[in-house]
Amino acid sequence: MEQQVLKSGEFLVREIDPSDIFIPEEFNEEQLMIAQTCRDFLESELYPVIDKIDAPDTNLMKQTLKKAGELGLMGIALPEELGGFGQSFVTQMLAAETIGAGYSFSVAFMAHTGIGTLPIMYYGNQQQREQYVSRLATGELIGAYCLTEPGAGSDANSGKTNAVLSEDGRHYILNGQKMWITNAGFADTQVVFAKIDRDRVLSAFIVESNYPGVTVNPDEHKMGIKGSSTAQIFYNDVKVPVENLIGNRGEGFRIALSILHMGRIKLGANVLGASKKAINDSVRYANERKQFCVLISTFGSIRHKLAEQVIRTFALESAIYRVSRDIDIQIESNKAEGMDKGRASIEGISHYAVEAAILKVYGSEALDFIIDEAVQIHGGMGYSAEMAVERGYRDSRINRIFEGTNEINRLLVVDTAMKRAMKGDFDLFGKAGQLMADPEHAAEIPGGGEGYFDNKMRYIRNFKKAILLAIHGASSVFDKKLISEQEVLNNISDMIIELYITESTALRVNKLELLQGTASSGLHRDILDILIYDSADRIRKAGNDAVNSFAAEGQSEKLVAAVNELCRVPGTNVKESRRRIAARLIEDNQYKF
Hints:
By secondary structure, the protein is α+β, with helices and mostly antiparallel strands. The chain is about 55% helix and about 10% strand.
């Protein structure tokens, strides 16, 4: 049977069978070997020198990156004919997850392998790919991505960097300034965005760092990711060969947006790896540290923290690999339609813009919570630079700013889903209108003979209905002004994020039971029970906040009552469930969920 795949955002109105999703328990031997190679590299080449790298020592960082290139780790996403391994998107995400435990190294590595290389791979011509991508794949060249400017952060297209064709037509003369450029201090190539003449939109260029007129400032002093080189770059009458234009003139803004979608989704994988590292640090310390003559891992408060770290990590992981397989299928579909391999890949990734924004927001905020709790579990030692969690705490904070701030991404979740619906990708407004006609009877009630997962999916269907009511109500009241009602959009976005993460977890646990049997999934059911119980409350609160912000008196009472009913789930003994989850983590002394 053909696998069912939802379009981006379509999860709001449709269900999917658990057999149609990919879960981490299905990784094959080759994928696990690649992950182990990444893990071994961190253990042997990075962790012994991480203090020196964070001193910072940019030369050591560059040499460590080159070692990764020599092992082939920089070519996982690239085709074999260009020196890569041509791996699936699922495998790329697994590698990104594993490298995510590498602190500032992971930032430099992901900037090089992602935004520093893939614009050329995905949008460049064959000559550009052979000249640059083949050398970026091996680490012979290190790449950077230059989009942000002092006056153009979230509004990337407002940048002032300019390119003018020379009189002889052989070069573009580049002038401008870029800031917050990762790998700036040692990059050999830069993907630079600029407007040609008086164009309204950006174009993209390959600039070699040794071109005359390229000046790199000293590295910025940062709160965290200190080993990552971050600097301003100035371009003063830089001659860029015309053949270094990436794609077509004026295509740069599209390239930038597409690459940001890719960066967001891979950041979700990165923070997953960092979360697992923080959990391992937490439980190992809790299993060694004694207070009042007993290990602190025996304390209920510590076990609550450990269990909550696991729940959020497991949920993030479930969503990441669900959408990663969807992307692989979309890429193959694009190729079958005759798309160039590079374009097929980036179009497949970009299609899932809603999910990319969700994973970026949820993942970065989950890591902030998890590493904060890791510091708390360590107590005073967590504040000491002797412990790994101190570095992890400082390094974590940037993820809510990277790849578009979480504020921007929350708006994108709702806006992009609504635009996809208006394009006809799925029927969002029709279903929402039906619910709005009789909101008091929107909730599904339990039927006879419901099983465990029948119950869970009924709750999730009700969550979807609560979101549709909020979207329809807000759209009806504010119409085109809705984009300016950011508080309401944030409420709806939070509802959507909770829904996607929770549904992905439910599908994963269900599939696990289909593969391994009910007896093997007791702890996974504990995770799902708590997640649905907590998500229901968060969706209810966000839904009520949205309704009370747009509904007229009289209507608000009906809609609030409907949202409350749609978010009603039975109580569960969260204390005992968390204790069981924590007990397994404590016994294993590492994350093995």
